[in-house]
Amino acid sequence: VECGPRDALVLGGTRPGTPSARGWTVWKLQASPPSWTMAPPRNVVKIAVQMRDAIPQLIRLDQAKPLAAVLKEVCDAWSLVHSERYALQFADGHRKYITENDLEAERLLGGLQCGSRERRRETLQHLVLLAPDMTFAQEVISRDGLQRLGTIIEDGDDLGELLALALRAFLELMEHGMVSWETLSIPFVRKVVCYVNMNLMDASVQPLALRLLESVTLSSPALGQLVKSEVPLDRLLVHLQVMNQQLQTKAMALLTALLQGASSTERKHMLDYLWQRNLRQFIYKNIIHSAAPLGDEMAHHLYVLQALMLGLLEPRMRTPLDPYSQEQREQLQALRQAAFDPEGESLGTGLSADRRRSLCAREFRKLGFSNSNPAQDLERVPPGLLALDNMLYFSRHAPSAYSRFVLENSSREDKHECPFARSSIQLTVLLCELLRIGEPCSETAQDFSPMFFSQDQSFHELFCVSIQLLNKTWKEMRATQEDFDKVMQVVREQLARTLALKPSSLELFRTKVNALPYGEVLRLRQTERLHQEGTLAPPILELREKLKPELMGLIRQQRLLRLCEGTLFRKISSRRRQDKLWFCCLSPNHKVLQYGDVEEGSSPPTPESLPEQLPVADIKALLTGKDCPHVREKGSGKQNKDLYELAFSVSYDHGEEEAYLNFIAPSKREFHLWTDGLSALLGSPMGSEQTRLDLEQLLTMETKLRLLELENVPIPEQPPPIPPPPTNFNFCYDCSIPEP
Predict the structure, then answer these.
(1) pLDDT tens digit string along 377-407?
(2) Rounded distance, CA 550 to CA 311, Å?
(3) Which residues pair with 48 in a beta bridge?
(4) pTM (2 decimals)?
(5) H-run or E-run covering 57
(6) How far apart are CA 78 and CA 82, in angstroms?
(7) Cα–Cα distance for residue pair 616/522, rounded to 1 Å
């Protein structure tokens, strides 16, 4: 017997008039040997249905029938009335229910009030297993299930396994987004805070309590303030310094949530305090450079922490210089004196005021300001006062390099001088753009740089390295003032390429960026250009057109093989958390998508072990970006752009309704591979950017291989003319005439 995609079902429900539910189990049948008899219709499968205290049934399930009719037939065979009170349930995976009208939720919630500890433990375990199912969660929530779980959590009669199970079930139900986190009561939140602040607590409870408080903090500003006031930063530091990686991750998650919810002033005070308690050093030594691999969730929280650290610079970046501020005028004078009066000598002693002002203006011009009044250069935002901060930091912490930079360029008379102030202002803008200072945090990004946790004042130190790189590149390019923008483009490329390598320390960054001189940048550009460009000769273009179908077939084959290998996807909840995984792959015969939930850290499952199946023939359409139902209702802000770029869905018929299988790709490359593969399965063209790049690369390689024998032979722009036909065709030989 060949089983269909729903060949493992459970029919569960409650007998009318009895308080306890009885489950019906369906066992998966093995495929029988091929038979010479006529095959049944494709939508008819044979399944075995078993119920306790009843004789099992072997039924022919017509999947085109309404579900209610199938339930009625099965119940009639066992003489059961009220078939509408029973429900179909998957036997594998999370045993999800298919129908909405079942009383399993009521039975489990009744078990929560049982006096037996063992019965409550079994009930909570079953509840945790079923809670991820949306239909079951609706039933539980509609029957005040959250309130009953909240009572167990608030009472705290058992601080071990029962409390952990109750917290897990509560979180699973809340993740569906049917109930707002803002509805939680203050006593309930305070009780969860107590579990976080306790010293002797079960290791399985505190990560769940921290996760709950993180959700509360991100979703409710009022309750977030309560959590901020009740959970000391020192307590979070204690959790971060344990060797339990899960507890570390959840403590970091709550810490970043509290920082995100704080005002800019509060955030600065909090980070200053954490840095005084050596949190930066601990993260760098014990988390980033830990022997254990860094998880995706911890990488995301470190990215958020880095963004918040750099975000403290935004107020200075948005503030222009005030020409009437005595403090800022003194800072400008200090910058000038550090370059031209290193011994602290007063300018123009004995000179008139006009003469002193003239000398000051001339020295500011030598310093590289475009205007004699430097305040006019620093009125631009960004970078505002942040550029002045960078210049002052460089002059005070690298005085010899600063003096050498300024004096070396101010004394040149060959128009090749590099203007320090103008370069510093533009370089500060460039660094802010590369590091995305002032932009909102992405909710899925993980690209933090370990370098920013390696030492204090990392941004200013990065500027000190970059401004010396700019001077070096300027001299290598033998640039003049007219080449300023070209130099900045090269420096941008040098910095961007080096930052992409994610060096672990500033010294390593300095080494790598200095190993990328202007000549090497030109070589890399030329190499990339040769990879991207192809010859435009008509014969070559014709050859490429002839090669395209074969190479597109090769790309299609690769995409389908990638789908057969499968990919781990992350589930994004209503708040787009990334703490759940599921695996999806294409069957070897390219007829079925197989998928199911997996635990983080486990090896990829085999296709046979995946509980869910979706026939490719049932797929109607492929949706991407904002057309996907799981991101359609999200906002359109910058923070959602990265989510739109990775989202895709397939729509299929589920009974009389249209259903969707939703994906969030782990990377842009995986997004292209999967959308290409699904398009190929649906007979649609593969139009992704990755397909274009792969086709171009294959065409270039194949064209070069075909042209190896024509090396150093010029290829004409036009094909040679066709000669006129011969006067006769007597030279032709007819092979069909036998020789005498």
Answers:
(1) 888 888 999 999 999 999 999 999 999 999 8
(2) 51
(3) 27, 58
(4) 0.65
(5) strand 57-62
(6) 12
(7) 48
